[in-house]
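LOG
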Amino acid sequence: MTERRFHVAIYSAAAVEGAVAAFARFATVSLRQEGEYRVVAVSSSRPERAQQVARELGNYALGLVREVAK
């Protein structure tokens, strides 16, 4: 399992939830709140796939943050 942490001051809930929804078909993805972070856990039967999905999900969430800021 791979985790990515998104600070609430930087990443909106909509951006993180949108990224989770977009990548849920590629791996098992869960979202939880942990203090000031939204934590996304990504798992797959292939660890390298989980890592790749987690990296792409992070990039996608950042892109969604930029879209909201426009």
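LOG (cont.) second protein
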Amino acid sequence: MAKTNANISLGSYLTTLDDNSSWGSPSSDFAFGFRPIGAIVFLLAIWLDKIPEKTIIWSANGNSLVQRGSKVELTSYNRWPASSLRTNMQQVWANNVTASGV
């Protein structure tokens, strides 16, 4: 199971190099982080964490898996929390934080 967090601070990150590469929801029903797909590639995803199958319900950039060493980080962008996924120091995904109500 993922490590359950009530609040994730700006600057927090997950990496594929860490065995605990996910954040759990306060209810422990969901987790967000890296899921291994094969031996050396990963998918950034949200999954159902309380069931053995760990069913993925959302993924970022699903057509381009990332390599070991990739990192997702919570940053500040124009006052809104933002996330981005980097691999080999190149951004491969970022959330859209320009909309109101994010």
